[in-house]
Amino acid sequence: MFGFLNLYKPEGMTSRDVVNRVYRQVKPAKCGHAGTLDPMATGVLLVCVGPATRLISWLQDRPKTYVAQFVLGQTSDTDDSTGNVIAATDATPVSFDDLQRALATQIGLITQVPPAFSAVHVSGQRAYDLARQGVQVDLEPKQVTVHRIEILKYEWPVLEVRIECGSGTYIRSIARDVGKMLRCGALMSRLERTAIGEFTTADGLPIDALSPELICSHLQPAARIVSHLPSHVCSDKDQNDLRCGRTIRTDSESSDGNANLATVWTTGGNASLLNSSGELLAIAEIQDGAVLQPRLVFRHGQPD
Description:
Blueprint lengths: L2 E7 L5 H12 L4 E3 L8 E8 L6 H5 L3 E9 L1 E3 L8 E3 L8 H9 L3 E5 L8 E2 L2 E2 H6 L9 E14 L2 E8 L5 H12 L3 E11 L2 E2 L4 E2 L5 H7 L1 E2 L9 E3 L2 H8 L4 E2 L20 E5 L5 E8 L3 E7 L7
Parallel strand pairs: 1-14, 3-12, 16-18
Antiparallel strand pairs: 1-3, 1-15, 2-3, 4-11, 4-12, 5-6, 7-10, 8-9, 10-11, 12-13, 17-20, 18-19, 19-20
């Protein structure tokens, strides 16, 4: 098995719980998820199966879309409604304009401190394990990219937003920081990841329906993970070169007249190597604009 599944994670399950469900259906094939969702969160969870687990980082780098609900006038130690919630007794309703200005500060390349209860590693331990032990930890801020925040609904104290962001962004931290800026506090009370790249909840498989047959029929080809890369369809000669560990040429010096000559190659970038059926054989580094050096090989290929 070589591909990935678009699954809909329900509330109350960890991302690892979902992976374990898949593994029981496909073992001994490896499984791994691309992007953790907290137990309270729902939505798109992509699970790679078999050799495709080596491509997890490529999926994690895809932009993500969330629909979140924030409650203003409340704070908690987890920055969401699952923690110890403290209501601000003196909080007054925030105007729509002030809310927009506060949200605008969270758009672009921003510096964000992860929540205390997060999976960030601190001296070999998870931050949430230390937090549960009552250990105070100062987490290092990191830069993340938020592309867009759209207000879907606002009726004090409840705010609903759609957020498009890059990898590593904590939506809980956005709620916390907006609350600090508005001086009333805020926490996240609901979260759904509606998309990772082009993979959306509309196509997400329900966890409870998983079976070996359903997985086989809905397993997405690994080539879709790297569909954004320039691709090279390998000829018989290319596949032989791949099996022998040689580089693959795509310029006029290639002896087989490959049809990919119009491709604009960017030296230092990556390209996907496919067979004539569109199956992913390898990821290659582009060298000198026309030479492909295989770096991540999945299948050596066979002559078509």
